[in-house]
Amino acid sequence: MPKRIKDGFLSLISNRLFLFFLAAILLFSILVVRLFKLQIIDGEEYLDNFVLKTKKTITTQGSRGNIYDVNGKLLAYNKLAYTVVMESSDKFAELAEENKTTESYERNKMIYNLIKLLETNGDEIVNDFPIVLTKKGKLKYTVDGNSLTRFLKDVYSITSIESLEKDQQEKGQKLLESSAEETFQFLRTGEGGLTETSMFDISDEYSMEDTLKIMAVRYNVYMNRYSQTNPVTIANDVSEESLIAIEENPDAYPGVSVTTDSLRVYNNSKYFSHIIGYTGVISTDEMDEMNEGKSEDDAGYYDSTDVIGKSGIEQEMEKYLRGTKGKQEVYVNNLGKILQVASSTEASAGNNVSLSIDSDLQKYCYDLLERRIAGIILTKLTSASDGGSEKLIPINDVYFALIDNNVVDIDSLNADSASAHEKSVYSDYVDKRTNIISRIRNQLEDGDKQRNLSDEMQEYTSFIYDMLADAGILNTNLINTSDETYLDWKNDRISLEKFLRYAINKEWIDIAQLDLSSAYYDTEEMYDALVEYITGELENQADFDKLLYKYMIKSGELSGRDVCLLLYDQGVLNSKKDDDYTLLKTSQLSSYEFMQRKIRSLEITPAQLALDPCSGSIVITDSDTGAVKALVSYPSYDNNKLANGIDSDYFASLMEDETRPMYNRATQQKTAPGSTYKPLVAVAALEEGIVDPYTIIDAQGIFTEVTPSPRCWIYPSHHGKINIQQAIGVSCNYFFYEVGYRMGQKNGEYNSARGLEVLTKYAEMFGFDRKSGIELPESTPSISDTDSVRSAIGQGTNSYTPSQISRYLTALASEGNLYNLSILKDVTNADGEVIKSYEPELIEKLSVSDSTWNAVKNGMYQVVYGKNSSIDHLFKPLKTLKIAGKTGTAQENTKRANHALFISYGPYEDPEITVTTVIPFGYTSSYAAETARDVYKYYFDLLTDEEKEDKDALYPTSGTVSND
After folding, report:
1. E-strand spans in 87-198?
2. Taking Cα atoms as reference points, which of 701, 700, 703, 694 lies closest to residue 726?
3. Residue 958 — very low, low, confident or very high, per pLDDT cuts 50/70/90?
4. Could you tell me where the DSSP H helices lie in 141-296?
5. Is there a contact between 263 and 237 (Cβ–Cβ < 8 Å)?
6. For residues 274 and 278, what is the distance between their CA atoms, to the nearest angstrom?
7. Using CA atoms, how far apart are residues 562 and 584, in angstroms rounded to an integer?
8. For the segment 234-263, what is each residue's pLDDT rounded down to a tens digit?
9. Cβ-proximal residues to 944 (8 Å cutoff; 6+ apart), any chain
10. pLDDT digits (tens, 9 = 90+) for 331-342
């Protein structure tokens, strides 16, 4: 080093200023190193190994409160389970760049692999996506109405038609009318929307089934795109095998993790599902409604991933059952793993709800109702081909019911895994289909008049008409219903061919949907294209397939034995545990006797058959308080399969079930009350002075004061001279016709409207102008507004739910206490403290004289024990327990059996409970009365040991026909 530089350097060292400068450089270096180790930029930190650490907020859910019965028995609770969740990840961009693909491709590939992993371990994704693939390979929506519109608005990002630019409004409206196929293609490719977008960009290398599963996951992530704190649930209650596979391979499943979550569980679900309902992820509409007036900082604010009550008590008591959310401020790495918890606020549990329902009573009544309905079916079963005037149930109808209600899956008959027997049945079906479609083509080319066709061919041609109308090819809105040719078709005077040719000329046919070979075509070409459409489309129609099977059974081409054996082929029945299988297969047991045995043992239930009768309800109240002790609706469903993410296959099966198992018969199914209405009419007649307890009316068999003249049920006989108590006891229609007639009389002239005013006054007094008060969805009651004579026997347009009839009955039993019924007992917090109690509200104490109550209640006693009672023998097993009741048989469809009703209370002298039993299309009210009798035997501990053990169908008492 030159001396000049060396001297200068030494001089600097000796300078204090330099030392200070050097210290500053060293300090700055330390700070630089520190910043490399932990540099905060926009809330993100870089660690010494340069791994990104991001600060985020995690919301923790408070556990939902439990639901108990009146005695503290647990009905709904939560269990901890492994849940697979997904959130955004930058890894897909890296993979796309590395593999020269797209982010969507990599994301779809990962989701597909995740689905296959889960399915291999027996787990399933949460799939409530409202598009499914039918067994015919067609796409269809599982929702309709407002739910479908909301879904389509979300898919196509349409807030409202009015919010769109004017030049896009027409297209926007068409998008909201998109078919399932069109919506599927848009989500898969992004083509066809308002703007060009890639959407999910799902490759066609995946099968339709797998594409729908990928789409379901992508759609849920898409709907959660604005939430930065809540991952999307992919699968619930997964196995340890899935847990380990995901946690050990984080690079294979970026953005995916397994958490411990709380899942909703329902004990003995089928008995309580209509009452309790189920939970599910909140929808956009629900979130908007529940968050109205709230800010995101409010404790009760709902996020897009929150679970809420969707129906029943879960929905009604949402604000009490819902837990309070907690929050965690955490730091995570680029794989989403939590590295540090910065702060935490604990979540808290929701409140518990107790019902007034006695779960043991509820379960007994449900099972009893099923056994009684099965017994009615067995009593009405016939080997004849026709039910006749008695509306018996032909055995061929039972065989077909197994196919019609999807107990036997006809679409699986040709599967690779199908048995030889299944494939043989399918082969016979193919032959039948080929033959029938050929005959249909002939009919369309040179058709005979509809009235000249066989019943079978008439049903096929009627099916074609409905099929074209449903598809919109035949625009029924354009049809002039007074058109002569149309009327000829409706009255079977012309062929389907002639009608369709005429419809083309009248431009009732939308030719845009037909496959026409050129832009220039004549009428004949249009008709030929229509014929090709019809014959081609019939092969895709599941209901047409069922029609073919129906007539295969009728003709003997498909035997009852073959149908019964399909039950074993498809696992409905277990051949390894059933001696009847060998007997049936070797023809040692006839298919008729086989079905009798299976219905009797409830291996085949009324709900599966979906024949009349297949449904019913029982409502039991405390006659002193109006508290509901049992609210039974048969058939039912498993709400466990709808909570925690809907099982789409199960939900689809519920939607296709002919019995509508999600429909609450107790609160939603309305029927005419029939003769159960007569006690109300008796109160009206006595209180208005139309008659007194001693007034005698000479009851003839037919009432001739009005035309057409209604008859008493006893006609051509008659009841003769009776008073009002006796009239109730024998359910004399003539007596009450006369009462309804007198109500409409003034100055010797009859006016039905005047009579209806009186009847309406007392119907309203007994609460029939409003819902029952039960905290569940309920149909609106209908007080009759026509024909005071027939309305006086519970016909006319009277129409009420069992719950509404039960409220009226409770008022009768308590001599005038009109309650708003309730199924709630109380709400308690996590420490067991009662924070809200529920008691049925006493709306009104009816102002009715003691003499009227005595007359009416004595008449109801005579229904059960009078010398002319038709059901007194049914109640002898009650021994010293005496009840009062009223039978009711209501006809609403001449082609189907009558509804069976029975209302009652007991004990007679000091009532404890009321029992309302309704069996739609149950033939005769004695069947409902016998069911109620068994309820009293259970409730008052009068069942024999043998009865307690018996689980088979209960045959009605032989020869029982009630006075109605």
Report:
1. 131-133, 139-141
2. 694
3. low
4. 145-156, 166-175, 180-189, 208-223, 240-248, 269-276, 284-290
5. yes
6. 9
7. 10
8. 998 999 999 999 999 999 999 999 988 889
9. none
10. 877 656 677 888
How far, in Å, CA of 343 to CA of 341, rounded? 6
With a CB cutoff of 8 Å and minimum separation 6, the contacts of 37 are: 47, 48
8 A C-beta contact, residue 754 and residue 699: no
- Look up residue 71 and give its two tokens: 């005695």
**CB count in 10 Å sphere of residue 143:** 16
The CB-based long-range contact list for 297-301 (8 Å cut-off, 24+ gap) reads 299/324, 299/325
Work out whether strand 352-355 and strand 67-68 pair parallel, antiparallel, or are unpaired: parallel
User: In a 3-state reduction of DSSP, which class is residue 538?
Assistant: helix
| Residue found under tokens 């066989």 | 454
Q: Which residues contact 16 (CB under 8 A, 6 or more apart)?
A: none
Give the Cα separation of 954 and 127 in Å (integer).
Answer: 40
Contact between 349 and 830 under an 8 Å Cβ cutoff? The reply is yes
Q: Which two tokens stand for residue 529?
A: 């294209």
Please give the Cα distance from 243 to 117 (Å, whole number): 10
Q: 768 is written with which tokens?
A: 């029939």
Contact status, residue 283 vs residue 290, Cβ threshold 8 Å = no
Closest CA to 863 of 676, 616, 621: 676
How far apart, in Å, are the Cα atoms of 703 and each of 630, 709, 894?
Answer: 40, 6, 21
- Burial code of 46-84, b = ≥16 C-beta within 10 A, e = fewer? beeeeeebeebebbebbbbbbbbbbeeeebbbbeeebbb
d(CA 577, CA 570): 15
Whole-angstrom distance, CA of residue 221 vs CA of residue 205: 22
* Whether the Cβ atoms of residue 945 and residue 920 lie closer than 8 Å to each other: no
- Residue-wise pLDDT for 67-84, tens only, equals 999 999 999 999 999 999
Q: Which amino acid is at 687?
A: E
DSSP-derived letter for residue 710 is P
Q: CB under 8 Å to 524, separation ≥6 — which residues?
A: none
Fill in the amino acid letter for 631: L
- C-alpha 362/C-alpha 371 separation (Å) is 14
Return the number of other C-beta atoms located less than 10 Å from residue 278's C-beta.
25
pTM assigned to the model: 0.89
> What is the SS3 assignment for 493?
coil
Burial-class residue 175 by CB neighbours within 10 Å (0-12, 13-18, 19+). Answer: buried
| Kind of pairing between the strands at 393-394 and 381-382 | parallel
